[in-house]
Amino acid sequence: MFTSFSLDLSLSFKFLSLVFVAYIVRFLYKLYRIRSYFQKLQRDGLPMPPHHPLFGHLLVTNTALSNLPRDAHAHYLPSQIRLKYPSLGPVYYLDMWPFAPPFLVATSPTVISQFTQSESHLPNHPGIRKYLLPITGGGDLASMEGEEWKRWRKIYNPGFSAGNIQTLVPTIVEEVGIFVDILKDHARRRDMFYLDEAAINATMDVIGRVALYATR
Question: For burial by CB atoms within 10 Å, which of 13, 49, 134, 165 has the most?
Answer without folding.
Answer: 49
